[in-house]
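Form P-L/3: holo structure prediction, ligand glycinamide ribonucleotide.
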Amino acid sequence: MFKVVVCVSGGGTNLQAVIDGVEKGAVTNIQLVRVISNNKNAYALERAKNAGIEAVCVSPRDYDDRESFNEAFIREVNAVNPDLIVLAGFLVTVPPQLIRQYENRIVNIHPSLIPAFCGTGYYGIKVHEAALARGVKVTGATVHFVDEGMDTGPIIMQKTVAVQEDDTAESLQRRVMEQAEWIILPWSLNLIANGKVTVENGQVHVSE
Ligand code: GAR
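OUTPUT (holo model):
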């Protein structure tokens, strides 16, 4: 069984999609061992508890500086010795030491078709505001491995979503979640946990 830690900051709908996938048997060979939030009020923590998953909060506010927070965060991850770390709406920069330790074993979900609307400042609703401002007709979501850049790691899976004439950032965000994120995140995890994903020269290959 692949031991998985999920890191969250907010509502946790992507976490829920993974929990549901595991419960329904669509995602196999995965054990969700711990959920870590940087925000003690994140509803994602409730979702974890409801599913019987250990839920932990490590907030930068409780530490004097970034280095102390990073050390505490790394300790909470390493305590359960995971095979995979999933950033499911985790809005904190992951410490570079952790990225090096878990090379190609940290997965992130991003609400656009990378390389569009990604990098510094592009998170959550801002991504959809930027997409609408640019007038794109198609957007979507991307699951990728995390490297030391911002949204630059090897792409595992992407799914497109059509933009509608009357979309607001909120309606688009919701549709990207429903039609893309909640599908490709559990799907990618299932492929990884079942040994179907390899990375070669920065490119992901999937065998089904
Ligand atoms: C999701 O849309 C996810 O793609 C996004 O945050 C949201 C979290 O929602 N992540 C980023 O923007 C990362 N750059 P959730 O807490 O309901 O899963």
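COMMENT: The chain has a mean pLDDT of 97.
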